[in-house]
Amino acid sequence: MYFFLVAYSILGAGIKYIDDAFDKHIFDKKMAIAITPFLSVLGVYAMIIDPVSATILLAVLFGVLIKGKVNNIAFIIGFVLVMLPVIIIGVKFLIIPLIFLSTSAVLDEIGNDYIDSKKDQFDKEKFSNKFLIYFFGHRWIMKIAIIYLVILGIIPFFFFIAMALFDYAYVIIDNYNSLKQGIINATLTQRALAKIGLIFK
Fold first, then answer.
1. Mean pLDDT across 109-125
2. Do the Cβ atoms of 36 and 19 come closer than 8 Å?
3. What is the three-class DSSP state of 11?
4. What tens digit of pLDDT does each residue of 165-183 get?
5. Percent composition of the chain: helix, strand, coil (DSSP 3-state, to 5)
6. Quick one: DSSP state of residue 139?
7. Could you read off the pLDDT of 23-81 as tens digits, one per residue?
8. CA–CA separation, 27 and 168 (whole Å)
9. Which one of 1, 24, 161, 201 is least enclosed by Cβ atoms within 10 Å?
């Protein structure tokens, strides 16, 4: 159990690191590519040792694949490094739950994209808007789907905790990036104002 809690946390943080290295240029791309094989091996091992884990992680993978988010060299390498062993070894997974969770993962991605595109237009004082930003920002559709499978007795409860850790590790890296970007922007603004001050002296 504890392995999955740690592994999912590392995977969530690592995936966000790679994503922001290429999309936001905050982290080093070479480092992102360098950690990709480690994350792939960790993910594959987590799939091999448990069919439920394989079901959840494949659902996450299919969700981002269907939404076209396997869109940089690191993610492409990671996708190949994960899918080859899955196909060759014949990793066991739960078919109906995989379809159910993959659908929820796609809905999470759609909701998250919508929130990202409309976030600046929302009145953040309204509870409904705060709820939407939190709900889709933390990808709760898939977690609710996992809770449903837990209630049905298909998935052990600790996998819900593992998935929550995956998402919150992802969000922590995202929040760190926002803070870092804010500091960078503030520094650039200060430098620009200093240059303007020198011009008018």
1. 75
2. no
3. helix
4. 999 898 888 777 666 665 5
5. 85, 0, 15
6. T
7. 777 888 899 999 999 999 999 999 999 999 999 999 999 998 998 888 889 999 999 99
8. 19
9. 201
Helices (DSSP H) in 119-157: which residue ranges? 127-137, 140-151
What is the secondary structure of 60-123 as a DSSP string? Answer: HHHHHHHTT---SHHHHHHHHHHHHHIIIII----HHHHHHHHHHHHHHHHHHHHHHHHGGGS-
Domain ranges of the chain: 2-199
Does residue 197 contact residue 187 with C-beta atoms inside 8 Å?
no
Read off the amino acid at residue 138: H
Structure tokens at 19: 């994503």
Angle at CA 119, nearest 5°, toward 143 and 62? 40
Residue with structure tokens 């899955």?
Answer: 86
Phi, psi of 42 (to 5 degrees): -60, -45
CB atoms inside a 10 Å sphere around CB 186 = 10
- Whole-structure pTM value: 0.82
Tokens representing 133 are 């930003």
